[in-house]
Amino acid sequence: MKSEEATFLPLKGDGGSVIICAHVNPDGDAIGSALALKHILERKGKQATVIVPNIFPDFLKWLPGADAILVFTNAKHKDQIKTAISEAELVIVCDLNQPNRLAALEQDIMESKAPRILIDHHLDPMRDFCQTVFSEPDMCATGEVICHLLREAGELDSITLDEATCLYTAMMCDTGAFSFNSNRPVIYEYISHLLARGIDKDQIYRNVFYTATEGRLRLQGYLLYAGMKVLHDRHTAIITLTNEERRRFKIKNGDTEGFVNIPLTILGMRLSIFINEDTEHPGTMKLSLRSVGDFPCDQMASRFFGGGGHKNASGGKLQCTMNEAVEKVMAAINHYTDMLK
Ligand code: 5GP
Ligand code: MN
Asked: How far is the CA of 181 from the centre of ligand 2 (A)?
C-alpha cells in the first residue's frame, strides 16, 4: 500500500461539497468510480458533484447518478461547473495519473484552492499535483482501488446497492468483463461483497455490452471487412476510422468503444491499434492500443504517440492526416518488430 493516508477520505464533519472529476473521454471505470465516490460521499452527508471534461458513452447513462454528471463541453453546464469548483472544500481526481488527462478541465481544477486527492491505478502517477495519493498500479481498475480503501476502512459491508453497482461496472469495464488483467483472487472477494449488496451483474453486463445501435453494428462489420489491416509477420492489426466514415454510419463518439479489442481475437495476434479521427477536433487522430502478453503498449504510446496508459491498454494522439498517422503507426511497429515477430 503506497497510499499516504490510512483512512478512506479525510472528511471533516457534515455538510460541505466535494468535486469528483475523471479523465477526458471517460470510460466505464472513470464514470463508475466517480459515481461510486459520489454515492459514498452523499451517504456520509456531503454534497458531491461529478464533473467530466467531455461527453461519456450512452451505454453508461443508466448508472445511478449519471443524469447529474456535469460535462465541461456542454455549454449549459458551464456556470454550474464554475460554481461547484469555486465552492468545493475537496477535489477528488480519479482514474488518471497526470493533470493533462483532465483536458479542458485541467486549468479550473488546478486553480481551485481546495485540497486534491488522487485515486488511481495507472502506472507512474505524477504525485505532486494532489496532496493525498492513493495509487495502486497493480489493481485492475480505479473501482478496485475504492473497494480496497473501503475494506481497509472497515466500510465494505456498509455500501449501498448504488455504490456496489457503480463499483462492479468500473471493474467490469476495465477488465473486459474479467477477461484480462483480472487474475488476482481479491477481485472476486470484492465481487462477492458487491453481490451480497444485491447487484445484478448479469443485467449490468447487458446494459454495458448489449446496447449496440444498428449503425455501430454495421460500422463494426464494415471496419473488420474493409478497414482492418493485418500484419501477419508482426502479429499486429490496425483499424482506421475517419469522421467521414463515422458520419456515413451515423456513429457518435462512444459508439466505437471496444472495437480495438476485436482483432486480438485472431489467433496469435499480439497488438491491435485503432486510429480514430477525433470528432471534436478534426485533424487530431486518437490512437488506442491493446496487446496480449508482454508487449508494452504504454511504452509504444509514450514514445511514438505522446500518450501512455497500461502495459496492455494505452492511448495517444497525433496531429496529422489519417494517411500520415498510418505511416507513423507503421514506423512505431517497425521499431518493435523484434518483440512482435
Ligand atoms: P483508450 O484506448 O480506451 O482511449 O485508452 C486506454 C488507456 O490508455 C486509458 O485508460 C489511459 O490509461 C490511456 N490513454 C489513452 N489516451 C491517452 C493519452 O492521450 N495520454 C495518456 N497518458 N494516456 C492515455
Ligand atoms: Mn481505469
From this structure: 11
Among 164, 182, 209, the domain-final residue is 209
Residues of the domain holding 230: 215-340
Phi, psi of 261 (to 5 degrees): -80, -25
Instruction: Judge if 146 and 84 occupy the same domain.
Output: yes
Atom of ligand 1 nearest to the CA of 307: 20
CA distance readout (Å), 162 to 21, 107, 158, 159, 178: 19, 31, 12, 8, 20
Ligand nearest to the CA of 123: 1
Over residues 138-159, the pLDDT tens digits come to: 999 999 999 999 999 999 999 9
> Residue 225 and residue 291: Cα distance in Å, rounded?
21
Q: Is the pLDDT of residue 124 over 90?
A: no
The per-residue pLDDT for 337 is 97
pLDDT digits (tens, 9 = 90+) for 52-85: 999 999 999 999 999 999 999 999 999 999 999 9
CATH number at residue 17: 3.90.1640.10
For residue range 144-202, what is the model confidence (pLDDT) as tens digits?
A: 999 999 999 999 999 999 999 999 999 999 999 999 899 999 999 999 999 999 999 99
Count structural domains, the chain: 2
- Which pLDDT score, from 0 to 100, does residue 5 have? 43
SS3 category, 51:
strand
Instruction: List the CATH number of the domain containing 232.
Output: 3.10.310.30
Whether residue 38 is found in the same domain as residue 133: yes
* Distance spanning both ends of the chain, measured CA to CA: 37
Residues 322 and 275 placed together within one structural domain of the fold: yes
Q: Which atom of ligand 1 is nearest to the CA of 122?
A: 12
Are 12 and 158 part of one and the same domain? yes
Q: Are 84 and 78 in contact (CB under 8 A)?
A: no
Closest residue to atom 10 of ligand 1, CA basis: 309
Nearest Cα residue to 201 out of 165, 245, 226, 237: 165
